[in-house]
Amino acid sequence: MSLTFASPSADARPLHLVSPEGVEAFRAGLDGRAAAWLSGTEFSGAAGTVALLPGDDGAPTAAVLGLGDPSKRGRERFAVAKARAQLPDGVWRLATDLPADERDEAALGWLLEGYRFDRYASNPAPAAQLVAPEGCDAARLEAIAAGEALTRDLINTPAADMGPDELEAAASDLAARFGAGLTVIRGDELLDQNFPLIHTVGRAADRAPRLIDMSWGKSGPTLTLVGKGVCFDTGGLNLKPGSSMGLMKKDMGGAATVLGLAHMIMALDLPLRLRVLIPAVENAVSGSSFRPGDILTSRKGLTVEVNNTDAEGRLVLADALALAAEGESDLTVSMATLTGAARVAVGPDLAPFYTDDEGLAQALAACAAKVRDPVWRMPFHAPYESMIEPGIADLDNAPSGGFAGSITAALFLRRFAPAPYAHFDIYGWNPTPAPARPKGGAGQGARALLAALPKVLGL
């Protein structure tokens, strides 16, 4: 797996980017041999097509990538990444000038195209390498690619090898690499230290529930990231059908995403104080499973009526957010694979987010478009507050009726979180392969948030 740029080299071969309307002009600028060869290949500039241009000895000395119809170009991110798997081994350079945002997208896409999940089977990465385009921040892009790779690896790993123990180990390895502090509260210690919801959700599993708490940085504003770490979700006593359980290894996608984002922040040495909180549990079935109808008391003291044990993510996040509210935080962000309702609303590619902070919302939207990490603001719709108030307890973890499921889950979490606060209801999975985004685990919202932090926190 190659997630770094090649060293600058005088021998780097040029990769030209050409749209259909520019093919004739490009061909006219080639020498006779190369122009004739390109004509013979019938290269038309169609999206994703690559033509190799031979030198005097017949070996490829350059290549051209088709960009496709300009009117359709915005439909697909990281189009330049398509070239990587089609180019022969060696060092290449972008030979087409691009605006800064497009240049960075092309460079990052190239790196991400080198990701392969090969823990269980051989999965060779493309051999072609790229020199960092002039003007881009190569170290930043490499840090982002490494953080995204960490997120993908954690999500892609099946639950047998990625339970609470292994998620803790991943956080511990990350903390050790960057000199961060790490504390972990496990098992019945959760009750002793007043994390009752985390304990309740995870107590039925053989693998002990825990709260992972990582801290890094000594000065600057404080950013708290809270990630849902449900390492497998059977649904509990409200058992999921088999068709809905098949992807539940990704139910710790929020934890994986905040760890990937934490990697980016620490690798870039951003001038802030970072705290990462991960409630890591397995929602299993046994005689000690929590039950529909149970009323639980949270760390904050709010009581919660359980109307569906499959709405467990908001329970474990509630205790972690309550802890965040007890400390100092200039911004708290939760990320969770929380609701199917979010997928119905926006599909798998968009990450809906919620916040009451208008400046944060605007910064996230602008930065998401810039770094091609699509997000979509959803409302904390106050009239729906009554939907999460069952009367018998302060809160209902699964309001009946099925309406506004993502919004009511976000409203539930807001009851526990400090302000300013943002919540991402992510999917964490790419269902179909795309350039720089293979089928499987995927980070969502992390790059947009990373890009927004300087403006939001005044870095």
Q: Which CATH class of the largest domain is shown?
A: Alpha Beta
Q: Report the CATH architecture of the largest domain.
A: 3-Layer(aba) Sandwich
Mean pLDDT across the residues is 96
Count up the domains: 2
In summary, what is this structure?
Pfam families: Peptidase_M17, Peptidase_M17_N_1. Helices cover 33% and strands 20% of the residues. It has 459 residues and is an alpha/beta fold.
Care to describe what's here?
This is Leucyl aminopeptidase. GO terms for molecular function: manganese ion binding; metalloaminopeptidase activity. One of its GO terms (biological process) is proteolysis. Residues 308-315 form the Cytosol aminopeptidase domain. InterPro entries: Leucine_aapep/pepB, Macro_dom-like, Peptidase_M17_C, Peptidase_M17_N_1. The longest helix has 19 residues, at 138-156. The protein has 14 helices and 19 strands. It has two domains: 13-136, Leucine Aminopeptidase, subunit E, domain 1 (3-Layer(aba) Sandwich); 141-457, Aminopeptidase (3-Layer(aba) Sandwich). The chain has 459 residues and is an alpha/beta fold. The strands form four sheets. Strands 6, 7, 8, 9, 10, 13, 14, 15 and 17 form a nine-stranded mixed sheet that branches. Strands 2-3-1-4-5 form a five-stranded mixed sheet, sandwiched between helices. Helix content is 33%, strand content 20%. α12 links the parallel β14 and β15 (375-378).
How are the SSEs placed, and which strands pair?
Layout: E1 13-18, H1 23-28, H2 32-41, E2 50-54, E3 60-66, E4 90-94, H3 100-113, E5 128-130, H4 138-156, H5 164-178, E6 181-186, H6 189-192, H7 196-202, E7 210-216, E8 222-227, E9 229-233, H8 242-245, H9 253-267, E10 273-283, E11 295-297, E12 303-305, H10 313-326, E13 331-336, H11 340-346, E14 351-355, H12 358-371, E15 375-378, E16 395-396, H13 405-414, E17 421-425, E18 429-430, E19 440-441, H14 446-457
Helix pairs in contact: 3-4, 4-9, 5-9, 7-10, 10-13, 12-14
